Amino acid sequence: MKKCHITFQLNGMTTEVLVNPNQTLVRMLREDLGLTGTKYGCGEGDCGSCTVLLDGEPVNSCLVLAAQVDGHRVTTIEGVADGDNLHSLQASFIEKGAIQCGFCTPGMILSAKALLEKQPDPSELEVRTAISGNLCRCTGYQKIVEAIMSTGKSAGECSSSNEEKCQGEG
């Protein structure tokens, strides 16, 4: 089988890879590039554990052929933090106890990141809709929703000067 040469932006860096025409994005990320933060779950697009951002939109990387990302931007969980500094969503997931086994966490964070970039102050319904393609068997979703909502625009209104007020909310 003849391999395809693709060039794309991966977590902000130009990346060139040779891939089989039938190879999925999740397999390329994990097996060829060693980015194991993207999880392989169901392989059918039902669980969301393989979610990555393709040109800023959440996609199930088990349903996208690697060759399809040629010329596009892909963001994985490894590209969310800034070096050793966690993204505010990652910090919020830890702070709110929204991580248990962690298998769904990368996909949840990427789905939430896409939402917050479009809607910095989402409603609970908007958050639940945005993560509806990501299954979690551990947390029951409430702590995940709280973590996402606390990262939104209104969360920035809480500071040390009104910390007591903010802790009383929610």
Walk me through this protein's architecture.
The chain has 170 residues and is of the alpha+beta class. The chain folds into 2 domains: 4-79, Beta-grasp domain (Ubiquitin-like (UB roll), Roll); 88-157, DNA polymerase, domain 1, CATH 1.10.150.120. 31% of the residues lie in helices and 15% in strands. The protein has helices at residues 25-32, 88-95, 105-118, 124-130, 142-151, 163-168, and strands at 4-10, 13-19, 51-54, 57-60, 73-75. It has a 5-stranded mixed sheet, with helices on both faces. A hairpin with a 2-residue loop joins strand 1 (4-10) and strand 2. The chain is globular. 40% of the residues are buried.
What descriptors fit this protein?
Ubiquitin-like (UB roll), alpha+beta, about 170 residues, five-stranded mixed sheet, 2 domains, DNA polymerase, domain 1
